[in-house]
Amino acid sequence: MRTLDETDRRIAAVLMASPRASWRTVAEVLDLSERTIVRRAAPLLHDGTLRPTAVRNPARFPRIIPTALRIRCRPSRIKAIAAGLARRPDTIWVDILGGGNEISSVLFLDGPEARNSLLLRDLPATADVHSWEAYDLLKVFPAGFTWSAGLLSAEQFDAMARHAHTPTDAPEIQPLDEALIDRLAVDGRIGYSELAAALDTSASTVRRRLDTLVSAHMVRLACEVDLSLLGIASEALLWIATGPGRTETIGGALSRHPQVRFSAATTGSTNLLVAVAAQDLNGLYALLTETVGALDDVRALEVTPILSSVKRTGRIRVSDRDW
Predict the structure, then answer these.
(1) For the segment 96-153, what is each residue's pLDDT rounded down to a tens digit?
(2) What is the C-alpha to C-alpha distance for residues 295 and 253, in angstroms, rounded to an integer?
(3) Would you list the DSSP string of 247-279?
(4) Structure pTM?
(5) Strand, coil or helix: 308
(6) In whole angstroms, how large is the CA radius of gyration of the chain?
């Protein structure tokens, strides 16, 4: 299994926070030579250790219904059920949770008909699924989009901010935008010239449209990596109940914490879903007691450890053969 040294991890952290950052930008942020960055990063991208991709922001695509599922099933069938979910093109993540009989999944469903088909037809027809709960994601807090596993200093984040896009209003979606996002989902660092050739347009048009989509939070660029390679051994989902008036404040604050990789407001008995990553159980305990415990109006908290990640950001991580 590949291992990453400190320099590799720092490069990965920059690309996680800014997946299309130029090699010059990465070098400036990390105070390394551009040649060193290319020499280190190219093999990691080539062998799939780093997997740049893109996903739509459902808040900007009204037809998409972002849904979180908690599925309880027979333990002996959990891997097969998780693999089946991962093969769906509308699943964004699939995790097997602690206890070995529960799956968590986030799906971007294509309208009410797709949601009804999943909840009223597909899940009831799936053998050995005992029960499930479904929640709509009301808001995904964007601060987590620049998550870097806590591997970058405040100064390095400030250096990255100098290269950030200026926020813009949401544009009207064009047919080119949909095709562009689909290409980026396969390779989030594909060059502008290659994109232009594939989409039968000019490189300047592709650059302009991508800058607009990213600036307006129409699309989220991401770079996936197995977190164990970054020294992270403890992942969990937090299901948090807050007072309605505190949901925005708490969800936003948690999304900016270096150990929080995802934060969203949801429907259901709890109103925040937060995905966290820590170096070990001691780090997870400190996060729960010192960070979450210090927040006002946290009324209930459930912690579900993640045993295995099957799919993240729309990318399947493991195959049936790996199990």
Answers:
(1) 998 889 999 999 999 999 999 999 999 999 989 999 999 999 999 987 778 888 888 8
(2) 9
(3) HHHHHHHHHTSTTEEEEEEESSSS-EEEEEEES
(4) 0.90
(5) strand
(6) 20
